[in-house]
Amino acid sequence: MYTRAARKGEAGAQFQLGLMYQYGQGVAQDYSLALKYYTKAAWKGEAGAQYQLGLIYKEGQGVRQDYAKALKSINRASEQNYAAGHNLLEFMNQHGQCVVQNYVRAFEWFNKAAQQGHVAAQSQLGFMYQHGQGVAKDYIKAYEWYNKAAEKGEAGACYKLGVMYQHGQGVAKDYTKAYEWYTKAAEQGEAGAQYQLGVMYQHGQGVIQDYGKAFECFNTAAEQGEAGAQYQLGLMYQYGQGVKKNPLIALKWFQKASGKNHANALVWLGKFYLFGWGVEIDYKQALNCFKRASRIEEGCAYQWLGFMYQHIFQEPGNIVKAHRKFKKAFNDYEKGSKLNNASDQRDLGIAYLKGEGVAQALTLARHWLSVAAEKNESTAQAYLGWMYKEGWGGEQDYNQALIWIESSAAKDEAAGLYHLALLYRDGEGVIQHDQKAVELLHKAASYWQKDAEYTLGWMYEQGRGVPQDLQQARYWYQLGEIHYADDALYAIGRAYEYGLNVAPDHNKAIEWYEKATALFYEPARKRLTFLRGKDYILPRNRFDESLLGKTKASQQQRFHASTSQYLLTVPSLKALSLNKISMMIKNYPTEEQAFKVIEENLAMLSSSPSLNKEYMQMILRLGH
Where are the alpha helices (DSSP H) in 355-449? Predict the structure, then answer.
């Protein structure tokens, strides 16, 4: 379809073909063909193609690296207010990957025209003062020139005045004024202003919070191709804000925004491919999305790249690569935290909690999560509540755990809903209530919270809060597609330590905690330290076979050793695939039998050729 349209000279189709050839999406990767189609679309003014063309020259993909050509093409995209172009221009300037632009001469010409009353020149002059191009950055002068042009009705200047009032640049921050200027620009069809109105309705800035009106504004801007609005529409469909929840429509909008290289949309699209949400699981596509996002914006994209190198592509060289990506993400979160950005403070806390990109520090993790949680950041509240529940980074406090987890769950944060369900299931900090737990688990699972899906399977299997239903149990177990061996091994150790559905066994708990600790799973190391009464030091060699035992840090380890309630009941397991086994199982063994069989067959399960990528996605869990 794209090929036919491209032959007819349709710029959008040529751009999409370029993307497909550059990233090997549905076709063999071919940089020369990508270059060909990007060039054709770029000459027709397609901003996305201009940006990608510049990226190819910048990276030297299938062509000789040429920063001058890269700058020229990216600048053309930037002149069309292409956000990714602005970001990359700033990066290239910071790193000297460009030729010197003559902003001074441009400023002189715009200044002359503006003094003569040229409206567009006045608006452009304001932009140069705002961004310090060819002149020292001066928000007050920027405001003055924007105001001159805006008074004559220039839509772009009205929009920029709204930005200055919204962020307090050159003028006192005033959301009401920002709303007024955005409205004037939006009435003239300015997509950026329509998008910003959506943001104001979404967050209740200068207006009463109204998700329905936010959706309308985003939809209007998105139909004009505004990438930020397309991304926000995806989120609203994903979470059911202002519109009925529909993940498949969310996917469509994420794809549209990703086509314009919107970094956050690319991250979301990568997660859809990684977890198989509405599409077939495709690790290559997920990796491509995260890589594209990382070239535009740091932080979250690097985090997901590290996740894939650590958990999906687990060759030793990739483990090193994962740590490098985590480190880059950590550095970005640290910078954002200093700027008082709640999302970066949250991510910094999570990085300290998991020891990703930095040595694990539970006290610092709790500190940064507390800072973000106090700013009403829902994911931080869920993690902070979890830390209080487990006693990580400070005293164990079920009351504080309940306060933060309830606050997160009230915002429909999936992690908050899940952890609140666990509190009700186990009667920790609240009166034990299985039905309430099941209700919360269903809500969390509707947001694709994998642990909630596993635990729902366990609740149906045990008949906790619902009538026992093995068919429902199997359904929920199989929905939870990705879980990793480190916390699976930890779960077995925890079961033996606390006697969860199996006879308590101190030595067995230590044995399984050691295996999880060898995979650098810090909660397991913490329990080892407690059980042994002294600090347990991780081995220097991550691949220490004496601790890994039969469980190898390899791609096969995505099979979840602790989750086979009915997986191992067929004697001829070696001759069967997991898919066939799951179809044949009718009777469940006891939990204790399952643990015993898991131990005896772990080596065979980890190395079985039949456990290919498709079958390893079938996750069956015993429960916490």
Answer: 362-374, 378-390, 398-410, 414-426, 434-445
